[in-house]
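> forwarded from #structure-qc
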């Protein structure tokens, strides 16, 4: 993909991660780097993310229904056979410290 140097650099830095800090007052600062890619259609956003999903050690792809605020954290699923309901972890929980 030609161009997009800043986006490529940001994705590389996200893969490498930041530095976690424990401050003297007990505050914990996570070293995660978050990126929100927004742009016009056909500007290679999905292609860049697909490449990251292939090389990242922990990566989860989510689209559509699973991308709601609740679906990213957890979902209540009903078993077809027994009718019991259970709580399943969402993409953000399963991809903790990875790329979602």
């Amino acid at each position: 993909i030609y161009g997009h140097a800043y986006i490529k650099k940001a994705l590389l830095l996200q893969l490498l991660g930041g530095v976690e800090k424990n401050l003297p007052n007990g505050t914990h600062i996570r070293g995660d780097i978050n990126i929100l890619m927004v742009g016009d259609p056909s500007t290679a956003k999905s292609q860049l993310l697909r490449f990251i999903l292939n090389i990242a050690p922990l990566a989860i792809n989510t689209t559509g229904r699973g991308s709601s605020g609740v679906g990213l954290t957890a979902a209540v699923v009903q078993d077809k056979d027994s009718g019991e309901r259970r709580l399943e972890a969402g993409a953000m929980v399963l991809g903790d410290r990875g790329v979602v």
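QC bot note: The two ends are 21 Å apart (CA to CA). The chain has a mean pLDDT of 79.
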